C-alpha cells in the first residue's frame, strides 16, 4: 500500500501556489467538503499560500509578504530542527540536480465517473490527507474502501506499480502518495489549455517532491529552498519555467487550478472518480 507523503498540504497545491507567489494573484480558496490539499488561499504578494501543519490540511489566506508555506517533511526524508521560524537549521540542503528517472512525465488520466461516492471521497480525505491522518489509517481506508473506488484512486499495473492514471499521483519510487492528480483534472476540465498544462505540471510536481524542500520545518526555510530550486541553475528551474508558461491560464485568478474545479483534492477526486463535476460528489 502506498504511504502518504508527510507534508502539510498536497504537494500539487504547493506546486501550483508557488507559481502564484512568483507574481500571479490568487483567490482565497479554502477546502471543500473538509478536504485537504486545498487551494491555499494566498492573497498577498510573495505568498506561497500553503498551510502549516504536519499532514495535509487546508490553509487560511495570508497577507502581503507572508509565505504561508508548508512545514512538514516528505518522502521519508528526515527533517532537521523542530517548528518555529527562529534558530537552528530547518531543512536539508536542496538538491542541486535530480535524476531524470525521478521526474515522472504526465500520463493521460482515465476518468471513471461514479467509481467513488461523495462519502468515499470524504472518507479518503479524512483518512489520508488531514492533520490527524496516519499511514496506518490511510492504509486501513484503502483496505475497506469499495474496490472500484480504490482502483480509480490508485490504479496499478500487473506488477503492482502505480500507473498515475487515476485520482492520485505517486512518486517515482512507487511508495509515496503525492495527493490528487491535479494535472489529470485540469486536462479533463480545460480541454483547450489543460492537456499542455498537465504535461508541464506533473514534471514540476515530481521534481518538487524530490528536491529536498519538504524536509523544511519552517515557512521561511521552505520559501528559501523553493527559491533555490527554481532559480537560475536550480534543480527544478526548467520544470518550473515550463509549468508557469503552460499553466498560466489555469493558475490565474479564477482559473481551473485557482478557484475552479481542480482547486483542491476533494474537487480533483470528484472530477476523476466521482460525479465528474468537481463539487466533491
Describe the structure.
This protein has 281 residues and is mostly helical. The chain has one domain. Helix content is 35%, strand content 4%. The chain has 10 helices and 3 strands, in the order βααααββαααααα. Strands 1-3-2 form a 3-stranded mixed beta sheet. A hairpin with a 5-residue loop joins strand 2 and strand 3 (176-180). The longest helix has 16 residues, at 194-209.
Mind sketching the topology for me?
Layout: E1 3-4, H1 11-21, H2 118-128, H3 135-144, H4 147-153, E2 168-170, E3 176-180, H5 182-189, H6 194-209, H7 219-230, H8 237-246, H9 248-251, H10 265-273
Parallel strand pairs: 1-3
Antiparallel strand pairs: 2-3
Essential attributes:
globular; 3 strands; three-stranded mixed β-sheet; mainly alpha; single chain; 281 residues
Number of helices: 10
- Strands of the biggest beta sheet: in what spatial order? 1-3-2
Radius of gyration: 17 Å
Helix content: 25-40%
How many beta-strand runs? 3
Quick structural gist:
The chain has 281 residues and is mainly alpha-helical. The protein has ten helices and three strands; from the N terminus they run βααααββαααααα.
Amino acid at each position: 500500500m502506498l504511504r502518504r507523503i508527510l507534508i502539510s498540504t498536497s504537494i500539487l497545491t504547493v506546486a501550483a501556489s508557488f507559481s502564484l507567489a512568483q507574481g500571479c494573484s490568487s483567490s482565497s480558496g479554502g477546502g471543500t467538503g473538509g478536504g485537504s490539499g486545498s487551494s491555499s488561499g494566498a492573497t498577498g504578494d510573495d505568498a506561497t499560500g500553503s498551510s502549516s501543519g504536519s499532514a495535509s490540511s487546508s490553509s487560511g489566506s495570508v497577507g502581503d509578504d507572508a509565505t504561508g508555506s508548508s512545514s512538514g517533511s516528505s518522502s521519508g526524508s528526515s527533517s532537521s530542527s523542530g517548528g518555529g521560524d527562529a534558530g537552528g537549521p530547518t531543512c536539508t540542503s536542496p538538491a542541486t540536480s535530480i535524476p531524470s528517472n525521478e521526474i515522472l512525465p504526465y500520463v493521460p488520466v482515465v476518468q471513471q465517473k461514479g467509481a467513488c461516492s461523495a462519502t468515499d471521497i470524504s472518507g479518503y480525505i479524512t483518512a489520508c490527507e488531514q492533520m490527524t491522518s496516519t499511514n496506518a489509517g490511510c492504509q486501513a481506508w484503502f483496505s475497506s474502501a469499495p474496490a472500484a473506488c480504490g482502483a480509480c484512486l490508485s490504479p496499478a499495473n500487473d506488477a503492482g506499480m502505480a500507473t498515475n492514471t487515476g485520482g492520485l499521483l505517486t512518486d517515482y519510487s512507487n511508495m509515496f502518495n503525492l495527493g490528487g492528480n491535479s494535472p489529470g483534472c485540469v486536462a479533463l476540465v480545460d480541454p483547450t489549455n489543460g492537456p499542455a498544462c498537465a504535461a508541464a505540471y506533473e514534471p514540476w510536481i515530481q521534481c518538487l517532491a524530490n528536491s529536498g524542500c519538504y524536509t523544511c520545518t519552517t515557512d521561511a526555510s521552505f520559501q528559501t529552498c523553493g527559491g533555490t530550486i527554481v532559480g537560475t541553475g536550480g534543480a527544478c528551474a526548467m520544470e518550473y519555467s515550463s509549468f508557469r508558461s503552460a499553466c498560466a491560464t489555469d493558475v490565474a485568478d479564477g482559473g481551473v487550478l485557482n478557484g475552479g474545479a481542480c482547486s483542491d483534492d476533494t474537487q480533483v477526486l470528484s472530477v476523476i472518480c466521482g460525479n465528474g463535476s468537481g463539487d466533491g460528489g
